[in-house]
Specification:
about 110 residues, mainly beta, globular, two-stranded antiparallel sheet, 1 helix, five-stranded antiparallel beta sheet
Length: about 110
């Protein structure tokens, strides 16, 4: 999720994102957040409490870069993780999420 979250935070979802399976470059890894659509950005990336965060029409993306100690992301109420099809029907997220270095997250508005 780190690479995908960084793609949304710093690239605003413009372009393309692909990844390969760990130690298996012959296939493409898939996880539900790849199908999530955050929509258009509502502003520029901002650094807050050790994490880079960008808000979108459909939610937000956050990432803590490698080499940084970690960060806390404060979330608006009602955000959910992407469910099995990338829709906002995954688990409800807490109002505060702690990310360690080299970690990212995608949160969707329900």
């Amino acid at each position: 999720l780190y690479g995908l979250a960084a793609f949304w935070v710093f690239g605003a979802g413009e372009g393309a994102y692909a990844a390969t399976g760990h130690d298996d470059y012959s296939r493409t890894a898939w996880f539900s957040a790849l199908d999530a659509d955050l929509g258009r950005p509502l502003g520029r990336p901002r650094r807050t409490s050790g994490a880079w965060v960008r808000e979108f029409e459909g939610g937000l993306a956050a990432v803590v870069l490698s080499g940084e100690g970690g960060g806390t992301v404060r979330l608006p109420a009602g955000l959910r993780s992407p469910g099995p099809t990338g829709d906002p029907d995954g688990e409800a997220l807490a109002l505060e999420v702690r990310l360690s270095a080299h970690r990212g997250m995608i949160a969707l508005r329900a």
